[in-house]
């Protein structure tokens, strides 16, 4: 067996390991058998991942003597819906998996959130394993136990905290990911630098091409990201405080995703986060919290890495400031009606700002939308 990088997520009885490295998928059977020798497995995946990588996973499970069945859903954000959630739940029940068996979330963040939520509620809670196959899922969504689906009222508004028992991140499966989806995941990597790790952001500015190319730099970026997230989750599992930092760029980004109808052709999550992080830095500069140069430094790096950084780059537009505010006020960080944003005082100096003035946000968005119209004209 290979010797992967191991990142522990320390949560008492719910502790688990994240294993990161090339060649882990063919070893999945042996590693899962060591954790649960008798368990039956229900794999949830999407059509793209199934076509490319399911045979490797099932061959490895067969070799380890583990019984398994598979549920395949359509790829894309639209699958984080009530309809697909019902499909997955009924599919799991049809396999007759028991409470002590395992759900395997095999795919990107959409599959992790969807299958993880189904595992949280089927028979009032089944164990599950994350086998993330997108960069975004390997650095972020497979870790920390946030699961859920979208509602027409907003992103991830229906869900549960439910920790996996193991995360197996085979970095070689990323070779089949499209460039667009790889870049989207890179936005969440850059996020860890911008939250609280300026040296990591400086390293990314120098090494992002190597991270995209693969090999050791990519593994290193994934490991740094997972260590950062594991630390925050261990200190604040259910987001009563510090964990909200992981939401940098998401208050704006989630509103953009809701207003594009969760249409992956127009905007994917990482792209929304990229634009959202630039907006968060611009808004911070507007409030005099950080230097006026900070937003262009952040936008410069994300744009160089091939990510969108402005609202006008979202095809088909994103509605009005009032519509964006309507989505923003459904954010889960809202407390007693007051808005919470993750803002910044400088590179890697993000902080949680409670009681942000809605009029200031509306004014800022009106200006950004007017700028976007000028570019589009
Ligand atoms: N739970 C959390 O903590 C958390 C954190 C971040 C993001 N998220 C959620 O994750 C979702 C985004 O995840 P995502 O960016 O992975 O999107 P995704 O799951 O839609 O995957 C992106 C695309 O890549 C394809 N794909 C995945 N792996 C592949 C591979 N190895 N080769 C080829 N194609 C592959 C998928 O089929 C899909 O078309 C959003 O719904 C977001 O809200 C959750
Ligand atoms: O794990 C977290 O906490 C995060 O905020 C990570 C985010 O990247 C992720 O997109 C998460 O799903 C957003 O959480 P939400 O609570 O705003 O839905
Ligand atoms: Zn995210």
UniProtKB/TrEMBL annotation:
It is found in: Cytoplasm. Its main location: cytoplasm. Keywords: Amino-acid biosynthesis, Aromatic amino acid biosynthesis, Cobalt, Cytoplasm, Lyase, Metal-binding, NAD, Nucleotide-binding, Zinc. It catalyses: 7-phospho-2-dehydro-3-deoxy-D-arabino-heptonate = 3-dehydroquinate + phosphate. The keyword NADP does not apply. InterPro entries: Dehydroquinate_synthase, DHQ_synth_AroB, DHQ_synth_fam, DHQS/DOIS_N, DHQS_C. Zn(2+) binds at residues 188, 250, 269. Residues 185-334 form the 3-dehydroquinate synthase C-terminal domain. Pathway: Metabolic intermediate biosynthesis; chorismate biosynthesis; chorismate from D-erythrose 4-phosphate and phosphoenolpyruvate: step 2/7. Its cofactor is Co(2+); Zn(2+); NAD(+). Gene3D superfamilies: 3.40.50.1970, Dehydroquinate synthase-like - alpha domain (1.20.1090.10). Residues 71-183 form the 3-dehydroquinate synthase N-terminal domain. Its EC number is 4.2.3.4. HAMAP family: DHQ_synthase. NAD(+) binds at residues 109-113, 133-134, 146, 155. Binds 1 divalent metal cation per subunit. Can use either Co(2+) or Zn(2+). This is 3-dehydroquinate synthase. Catalyzes the conversion of 3-deoxy-D-arabino-heptulosonate 7-phosphate (DAHP) to dehydroquinate (DHQ). Belongs to the sugar phosphate cyclases superfamily. Dehydroquinate synthase family.
């Amino acid at each position: 067996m290979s010797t992967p990088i191991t990142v522990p997520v320390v949560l008492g009885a719910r502790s688990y390991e994240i294993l990161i490295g090339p060649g882990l998928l063919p070893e999945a059977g042996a590693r899962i058998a060591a954790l649960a020798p008798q368990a039956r497995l229900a794999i949830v995946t999407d059509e793209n991942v199934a076509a490319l990588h399911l045979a490797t996973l099932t061959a490895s499970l067969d070799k380890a003597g583990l019984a398994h069945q598979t549920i395949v859903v359509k790829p894309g954000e639209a699958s984080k819906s009530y309809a697909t959630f019902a499909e997955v739940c009924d599919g799991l029940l049809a396999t007759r998996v028991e409470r002590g068996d395992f759900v395997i979330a095999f795919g990107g963040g959409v599959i992790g959130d969807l299958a993880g939520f189904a595992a949280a509620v089927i028979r009032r809670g089944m164990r599950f394993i994350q086998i993330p196959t997108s960069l975004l899922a390997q650095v972020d969504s497979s870790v920390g136990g946030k699961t859920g689906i979208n509602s027409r009222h907003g992103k991830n508004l229906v869900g549960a905290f439910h920790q996996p028992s193991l995360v197996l991140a085979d970095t070689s499966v990323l070779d089949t990911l499209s460039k667009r989806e790889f870049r989207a995941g890179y936005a969440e990597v850059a996020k860890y630098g911008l939250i609280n790790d300026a040296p990591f952001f400086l390293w990314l500015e120098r090494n992002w091409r190597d991270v995209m190319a693969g090999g050791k730099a990519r593994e290193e970026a994934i490991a740094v990201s997972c260590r950062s997230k594991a630390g925050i989750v261990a200190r604040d599992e259910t987001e009563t405080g510090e964990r909200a930092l992981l939401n940098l760029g998401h208050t704006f980004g989630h509103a953009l995703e809701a207003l594009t109808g969760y249409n992956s052709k127009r905007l994917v999550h990482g792209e929304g986060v990229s634009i959202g992080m630039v907006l968060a830095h611009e808004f911070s500069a507007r409030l005099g919290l950080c230097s006026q140069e900070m937003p262009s430094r952040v936008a410069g790096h994300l744009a160089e890495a091939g990510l969108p950084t402005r609202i006008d780059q979202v095809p088909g537009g994103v509605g009005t400031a009032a519509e964006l505010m309507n989505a923003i006020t459904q954010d889960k960080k809202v407390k007693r009606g007051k808005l919470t944003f993750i803002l910044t005082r400088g590179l890697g100096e993000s902080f949680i700002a409670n009681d942000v003035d809605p009029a200031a946000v509306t004014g800022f968005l009106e200006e950004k939308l007017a700028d976007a119209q000028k570019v589009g004209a």
